[in-house]
Structures are given as structure tokens and as C-alpha cells.
Design brief:
This protein has 123 residues and is an all-alpha fold. The chain folds into 2 domains: 4-50, no CATH class; 62-122, no CATH class. The chain is built from 6 helices and no strands. It has helices spanning 4-11, 36-50, 62-74, 80-88, 94-103, 106-117. Helix 3 (62-74) packs parallel to helix 5 (94-103). The protein is globular, with a radius of gyration of 16 Å.
């Protein structure tokens, strides 16, 4: 599942979590021309439509995405310097790079370690 998170976040999709008891969605096959992100988006979109939920009406702006990813992955809002650096990045894959950096960075590892070692984590 962790390998799916970056693709879902980069796509800017709004998804409703499902539970193990939910029957699996019967998505049609992804086409060979799809890359992995497109294939994931295809299956998620189909599952969202079949469940009666609506997909996000529009993709999050870069700055909305930046803030959400920071909050979700490292539990804080980005600094002004981090916002300016992201805003100034003209790469087409800057969202994917940000997710990889945060997902596999030290700050996330420290946060995960702290949450697993706290007494409240075992409740």
C-alpha cells in the first residue's frame, strides 16, 4: 500500500477509504499504454464512481497540494522557504519528487518512530 500513496497523492485525488469487508471493485483492465500512475488513477476512479462518491471536481493547486502533503506525511505545515522552493520548481514531476522526499525522508521516519513508541500508539 505504501507504494500506492505517492501515486495517489501526486494525482491529487480525493478518495474515500474502504474497509477490508468491502467487496473488491470490478474495474476493467488498465490499457497497456497507461503508466503506473494512470493505471492506479483508473482503478481508484472507477471504485469511487461505483461507490456512489464523487471524484474531486478539480485538481488541487500546487500550493494546496504542497500544504496537504506536508500535513499528511510529516504532520506540519511547510516553512516559507519550502513553499518558495516548491513554487519556484518548474519541473513537471515536482509533486512526485516532493512526495518521495517527504515519504522517505528523515522527518517522516522520526515521526513514525515516535508514534510507534508512544504509549498512546498501543491503545
Amino acid at each position: 500500500m505504501l507504494r500506492l500513496i505517492p501515486a495517489i497523492l501526486v494525482a491529487g485525488l480525493a478518495v474515500t477509504p474502504t474497509f477490508a469487508a468491502d467487496p473488491p471493485a470490478k474495474a476493467g483492465p488498465a490499457t497497456p499504454a497507461m503508466n503506473s500512475t494512470q493505471a492506479i488513477n483508473h482503478y481508484i476512479g472507477r471504485r469511487v464512481r461505483e461507490s456512489g462518491h464523487q471524484e474531486a471536481r478539480e485538481k488541487a493547486t500546487d500550493l494546496e497540494f504542497h500544504r496537504r502533503v506536508f500535513l499528511d506525511l510529516v504532520g506540519r505545515i511547510p516553512t516559507a522557504a519550502e513553499v518558495l522552493a516548491f513554487e519556484g520548481d518548474k519541473a513537471t514531476d515536482k509533486r512526485a519528487k516532493l512526495v518521495r522526499r517527504l515519504l522517505y525522508g528523515r522527518e517522516r521516519m522520526k515521526r513514525a518512530k515516535k508514534s510507534h513508541s508512544s504509549p498512546s500508539a498501543s491503545r
